[in-house]
């Protein structure tokens, strides 16, 4: 008889109150498949390298701006000096070492870029295109306005409404003096 209490239980293994194992074969197989997938996805190395980017929200990227492979001879000697005492380095050497690691300083990252000019120019460009197409549509595509939209028609309509005493309490006829044949003052 196998002593189930002496061994450690497998994941997804269920024991009832007597200590007997009721492990599901499907659960064990699922664990094997998922663990293989997990290992396969985490162990594969990426062929790409880290890309350098100056960002204020992530100020110190994990890679340097200039790779060690791309250094000139005097930069390599400066890099060797970097391992020693920094008090012996001049200000220009410290600046050069900073530029090896970082492309921009914080003040350069915070400086305005002028990108807003392109955005405003694009907005005005799109507005001008929209106005141009509106003018084309108004001139060549849209039908002419009906006769009821002309000034003469509206004046004749107002005279007609006054003549038939249309809306005499609060409307147009209430503001017309029918005895003087003129507007009330």
From TrEMBL:
Main location: mitochondrion
Residues passing through the membrane, by range: 116-136
Protein topology in the membrane: Single-pass membrane protein
Pathway annotation: Energy metabolism; oxidative phosphorylation
Coiled coil: none
Molecular-function GO terms, alphabetical: oxidoreductase activity
GO biological process: mitochondrial electron transport, cytochrome c to oxygen
GO cellular component: mitochondrial inner membrane; respiratory chain complex IV
UniProt keyword list: Membrane, Mitochondrion, Mitochondrion inner membrane, Oxidoreductase, Transit peptide, Transmembrane, Transmembrane helix
Top-level taxon in the UniProt lineage: Eukaryota
Keyword Ribosomal protein annotated: no
Location in or out of the cell: Mitochondrion inner membrane
Keyword Transmembrane helix (UniProt): yes
InterPro entries assigned to the protein according to its UniProt record, in alphabetical order: Cyt_c_oxidase_su4 (IPR013288), Cyt_c_oxidase_su4_fam (IPR004203), Cyt_c_oxidase_su4_sf (IPR036639)
Family: Belongs to the cytochrome c oxidase IV family.
Free-text function comment from the UniProt entry: Component of the cytochrome c oxidase, the last enzyme in the mitochondrial electron transport chain which drives oxidative phosphorylation.
Complex and partners: Component of the cytochrome c oxidase (complex IV, CIV), a multisubunit enzyme composed of 14 subunits.
PANTHER family named among the record's database cross-references: CYTOCHROME C OXIDASE SUBUNIT 4, CYTOCHROME C OXIDASE SUBUNIT IV
Protein name per its UniProtKB record: Cytochrome c oxidase subunit 4
């Amino acid at each position: 008889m196998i002593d189930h209490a002496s061994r450690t239980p497998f994941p997804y293994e269920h024991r009832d109150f007597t200590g007997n194992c009721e492990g599901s074969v499907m659960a064990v197989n699922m664990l094997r498949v998922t663990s293989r997938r997990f290992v396969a996805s985490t162990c594969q190395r990426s062929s790409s390298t880290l890309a350098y980017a100056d960002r204020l929200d992530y100020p110190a990227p994990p890679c340097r701006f200039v790779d060690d492979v791309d250094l000139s001879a005097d930069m390599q000697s400066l890099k060797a000096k970097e391992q020693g005492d920094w008090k012996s380095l001049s200000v220009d050497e410290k600046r050069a070492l900073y530029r090896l690691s970082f492309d921009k300083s914080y003040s350069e990252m915070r400086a305005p870029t002028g990108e807003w000019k392109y955005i405003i120019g694009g907005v005005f460009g799109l507005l001008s295109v929209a106005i141009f197409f509106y003018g084309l549509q108004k001139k060549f595509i849209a039908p002419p306005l009906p006769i009821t939209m002309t000034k003469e028609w509206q004046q004749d309509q107002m005279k007609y409404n006054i003549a038939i005493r249309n809306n005499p309490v609060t409307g147009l006829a209430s503001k017309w003096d029918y005895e003087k044949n003129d507007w009330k003052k």
